[in-house]
Design a protein that fits this description.
Chain A: Residues 2-408 form the Ketosynthase family 3 (KS3) domain. The complex is a heterodimer of chains A (409) and B (79). Helix content of chain A is 35%, strand content 21%. Chain A is α/β, with parallel strands linked by helices. The radius of gyration of chain A is 20 Å and the shape is globular. In chain B, helix 1 (5-16) crosses helix 3 (36-50). The longest helix of chain B has 15 residues, at 36-50. The chains are: A alpha/beta (409), B mainly alpha (79). At the A-B interface, helix 3 of A face helix 3 of B.
């Protein structure tokens, strides 16, 4: 048997909460974070705003990082980096890995981000395009670059091994976690800080997403009739992954197993989902984990709430699992935390693992009624579950798919 | 818009990430750990907030925090 991968630490930030405990408490109670949101347009002095549903991060708790790191060392961070650092610190603390020698050169940092530091770049653009100025802040690039979260985490925790950010739009962090798992399996490292971050609720980013025509005007209603589309959220979710025997030997608490990963590319369309590509990723993940298709599982769907995604995903699930799908439980947590783009896969895998541990499925929110095109066994109310396995789906624009498989321990 | 000395100090504290109470006007920028990049960040924040561009050369001769604040206040008030 090859090296197995244990999850020994988890941290997250989203509209739902400032840490894992708060996030779980809200989502399992059906208390979603999507609300009416507005951002000022122009120079911010007029009353003109862009409005719509979104799940912004209203509160971020920096107590942990303030206690650990000198503010001068941290520097000024884009929200993209701030979310990632806060979540990573929670995860590393839970794993009791601060100052541990494994961080020095046997740990990788692998994060997924869909876009970079939107807020930082937009401040620069405002100066140039709106105010006619000719200079941008000298820290614009280092603060806003998409790889800044990996650099900052490596700097703060003293990690000298491989560190990078990986991008595959809405599947970025699922790919990052899966590839980190393979780095551990391959023996390149013994541990990894893996997950994702996204801070896309800035005016320019939000309007660009809205202009795609894929956004809901009301709210996110995965697999429901009359669903209109997706709703943006923001935040980060980060894991500490460790080689199983290494974690056991140092007495770490194992929270779950990262047992499989399947990735595929549709090679078909830049926005539309493709059933064949989705199926390929799910089948590959099961093959990697050695998990039979008829083993009952908690399926954390990609479930964006767009007409096309949900119908295509439901079709793919029926094709892969057949009659056995009836024994599975399908959740769609974007209905509570919105679409975190690059950070979605990580947050959904995290919530799925907690659900296995707590034996509770968080409810799919905002569901108005069944859509015959989306006939999957949804948990529409908080439900007790007894599954040992988690299948967590992420399907990105541009046809980049990643599926993670987790196991309860 | 005429900012107060306190408003300028708040901007310096924010940009240089130093507690406001540690910002003694008698102290030199160097002893406070305010590096040239922090000075640039403060000037950018002043420009973004008050629309006043203060050339870096103008603060090159300032040694203490108090002198630095004086130059900023003079430029912003004259605008």
């Amino acid at each position: 048997m090859s090296r197995r991968v244990a999850v020994t630490g988890m941290g997250c930030v989203s509209g739902l909460g400032r840490n894992v405990a708060e996030t779980w408490r809200r989502i399992v109670a059906g208390d979603g974070a999507i609300r009416d949101f507005a951002l000022p347009r122009g120079d911010g002095t007029s009353a003109v705003t862009t409005r719509g549903p979104a799940a912004p991060v209203d509160h971020i708790d920096t107590t942990r990082i303030d206690a650990r790191f000198d503010p001068r060392t941290l520097g000024k961070l884009d929200p993209l980096v701030n979310f990632a650092v806060v979540a990573a610190t929670e995860a590393v603390e839970q794993a009791s890995l601060f100052g541990h020698p494994v961080l020095d050169n046997r740990t990788a940092v692998l994060l997924g981000c869909g876009s970079g530091g939107n807020a930082t770049f937009e401040v620069g653009y405002r100066r140039l395009f709106e105010h006619g100025l000719d200079k941008a802040h000298p820290q614009t690039i280092p603060t806003g670059m998409i790889s800044a979260p990996a650099s900052r985490i490596a700097m703060l925790f003293g990690i000298h091994g491989p560190a990078m950010v990986l991008a595959s739009a809405c599947a970025s962090s699922a790919h990052a976690i899966g590839e980190a798992m393979h780095m551990i399996r391959a023996g390149r490292v013994d541990a990894a800080i893996a997950g994702g971050s996204e801070a896309c609720l800035t005016l320019g980013s939000w309007i660009a997403w809205s202009s795609l025509g894929a956004m809901a005007a009301d709210t996110c209603r995965p697999f429901s009739i009359d669903r209109q589309g997706l709703v943006l959220g923001e935040g980060a979710a980060v894991f500490v992954l460790e080689e199983w025997e290494y974690a056991v030997a140092r007495g770490a608490t194992i929270l779950g197993e990262l047992a499989g990963y399947g990735a595929s590319s549709d090679a078909a369309h830049i926005t539309a989902p493709d059933r064949a590509g989705i199926e390929r990723a799910i089948r590959a993940a099961h093959g990697d984990a050695g998990l039979p298709f008829d083993t009952p599982a908690l399926i954390s769907s990609h479930g964006t709430g767009t007409r096309l995604n949900d119908a295509t995903e439901a079709e793919a699930l029926r094709a892969v699992y057949g009659e056995a799908l009836a024994a599975d439980t399908v959740i769609a947590t974007k209905s509570a935390h919105g679409h975190l783009i690059g950070a979605s896969g990580a947050l959904e895998f995290l919530l799925g693992l907690v659900a296995l541990r707590e034996r509770q499925a968080p409810p799919v929110l905002n569901h108005l009624g069944p859509d015959p095109a989306c006939d999957v066994p949804l948990a529409l109310a908080p439900r007790a579950i007894d599954h040992d396995w988690l299948v967590s789906n992420s399907f990105a624009f541009g046809g980049l798919n990643a599926v993670l498989i987790g196991r309860r321990v | 818009m005429h900012p107060t000395r306190e408003a300028i100090i708040a901007i310096i504290a924010e940009e240089a990430r130093i507690d406001e109470e540690k910002l003694n006007p008698e102290a030199t920028l160097a002893s406070l750990g305010i590096a040239s990049l922090d000075v640039v960040s403060v000037l950018f924040a002043i420009e973004d907030k008050f629309g006043v561009d203060i050339p870096q050369e103008e603060i090159a001769s300032t040694e203490t925090l108090g002198q630095f604040i004086d130059v900023i206040l003079a430029r912003v008030s004259a605008a």
